[in-house]
Write a structure and sequence with these properties.
This protein is an alpha/beta fold. The chain has two domains: 5-129 and 292-311, 3-Layer(aba) Sandwich (Rossmann fold), CATH 3.40.50; 131-289 and 321-339, Dihydrodipicolinate Reductase, domain 2, CATH 3.30.360. It has ten helices and 15 strands. The chain has helices at 14-25, 40-50, 61-67, 79-91, 109-118, 134-144, 165-171, 178-194, 286-307, 315-334, and strands at residues 5-10, 30-36, 57-58, 72-75, 95-98, 124-126, 151-161, 198-206, 221-228, 233-242, 247-254, 258-261, 272-274, 277-279, 338-339. It has a seven-stranded mixed β-sheet with strand order 12-11-7-10-9-8-15, with helices on one face. Strands 3-2-1-4-5-6 form a six-stranded parallel β-sheet, sandwiched between helices. Helix 1 (14-25) packs across helix 9 (286-307). The longest helix has 22 residues, at 286-307. The structure holds 1,4-dihydronicotinamide adenine dinucleotide. 1,4-dihydronicotinamide adenine dinucleotide is lined by residues 10-16, 36-39, 42, 61, 76-79, 81, 99-100, 127, 129, 286. Residues 5-128 form the Gfo/Idh/MocA-like oxidoreductase N-terminal domain. InterPro entries: Gfo/Idh/MocA-like_OxRdtase_N, GFO_IDH_MocA-like_dom. It comes from Arthrospiribacter ruber.
Length: 340
């Protein structure tokens, strides 16, 4: 019989609550035994909804690691904490699932590789959940099978609904920028599907509706064009001003065919015919679009720990996506082509 894994969850915000729900009822052989958050209301939520005792709700990450006897942590804390929290947990021999991005600046990533090399049974997975979404998995399968030939262009859009902009603007000063915050998912998808590394990056942006972004050298919409070592190209766009909802769209144009994912960003086939014409409802947020992928990635994390297998989305993959996102940001700020 499999042993129960004792899990500690860090962060109970927008995404942390989703991970909590999944870990506390939807996966076998895990026990969510502790949470860590700075917010007292979130601690009360953990007591009432997760059935944790107040003593299992920590404000201090290190104290939780010291006291809760954990096998693994799931990190859904703000991005600026990810690298240090990952490093600390791994160095104590605790498995880590870390939300994206792994880091917000060029960190001593070699230290993480060193820990993992000397502890071959430790699992460190990073939250690129699109790799666990059935539609993206099907696209990957078709590409590997050669169905669309050689990849000419990867085109990825990540657009957040404008209805959320005021929540986002509160966090703008602490944001790590649109490429690390949002487009890093598309960067990881491009890396995964093209299966190579870029050699050049050029980014640009503009603030069409919210000039607040300009103070940080950013825009409310950003784009980047990359050329990969194998000649494939990638065009990526991330924006915060979609009027219609949460819109994740991907197109992969190949020499023998094209794959499109999410060009109509709607959860169902239902169409509404009314005074505005004929329309479909749009996804509202990341939970609406990717709930199954969030479940699948945590199931895979737990399975990898139990079966002593390397994650399909680990530190190497996260490092590459982080580095590219940092270079895309540098190109934006310096207004120049970056060679990698
Ligand atoms: P949030 O702001 O809603 O929640 C942050 C949580 O972290 C709060 O519970 C807060 O109390 C806690 N926290 C803050 N400082 C802490 C510290 N020093 N130690 C422990 N806990 C601390 O943030 P949200 O939107 O849930 O994002 C969290 C992370 O998840 C971010 O890194 C973000 O990039 C990532 N994310 C990933 C998504 C995806 O599509 N995979 C979607 C949304 C967020």
């Amino acid at each position: 019989m499999m042993t129960m894994l004792r899990i500690g969850l860090v962060g109970l915000g927008r995404l942390g609550k989703i991970h909590a729900e999944i870990l506390s009822g939807q996966i076998s052989n895990v026990d969510l035994v502790a949470v860590c958050t700075l917010d007292d209301k979130e601690k009360s939520w953990a007591v009432s909804k997760l059935g944790l005792s107040a003593t299992c709700c920590f404000s201090d990450f290190e104290k939780m690691l010291d006291e809760a006897k954990l096998d693994a942590v799931v990190l859904a804390s703000p991005s600026s904490y990810h690298f240090n929290q990952t490093y600390l947990a791994l160095s104590l021999g605790i498995h880590v699932f870390c939300e994206k991005p792994l880091a917000v600046k060029e960190e001593k990533i070699q230290n993480l590789f060193d820990i993992l090399n000397t502890n071959s049974g430790l699992v460190c997975q990073v939250g690129f959940m699109r790799r666990f979404d059935p539609v993206y998995m099907k696209a990957k399968e078709k590409i590997v099978n050669g169905d669309i030939g050689e990849i000419i262009l990867f085109r990825g859009y990540s657009l957040d609904p404008i209805s959320e902009i005021h929540n986002f603007l509160k966090f703008l000063p602490s944001s790590s920028g649109q490429f690390l915050d949002m487009a890093v998912h598309d960067i990881d998808m491009a890396n995964w599907l093209i299966d190579a590394f870029p050699k050049t990056i050029y980014s640009c942006c503009n603030s069409f509706s919210f000039r607040e972004f300009e103070e940080f050298g950013e825009g409310d919409n950003v784009t980047s064009l990359m050329q990969y070592e194998n000649g494939s190209m990638a065009f990526i766009m991330a924006g915060r001003t979609a009027q219609h909802g949460y819109h994740i769209e991907t197109e992969i144009i190949g020499t023998k065919g094209t794959i499109r994912i999410g060009s109509v960003p709607s959860p169902h086939q239902l169409e509404i015919l009314d005074g505005s014409g004929v329309r479909r409802e749009c996804y509202t947020d990341f939970a609406d679009r990717f709930y199954l992928a969030f479940q699948n990635e945590l199931v895979a994390f737990i399975k990898n720990i139990h079966e002593d297998e390397a994650p399909k989305c680990g530190i190497h993959e996260a490092y590459k996506a982080t580095l590219i996102a940092l270079k895309a940001t540098e190109s934006l700020k310096e207004k120049t082509l970056i060679k990698l």
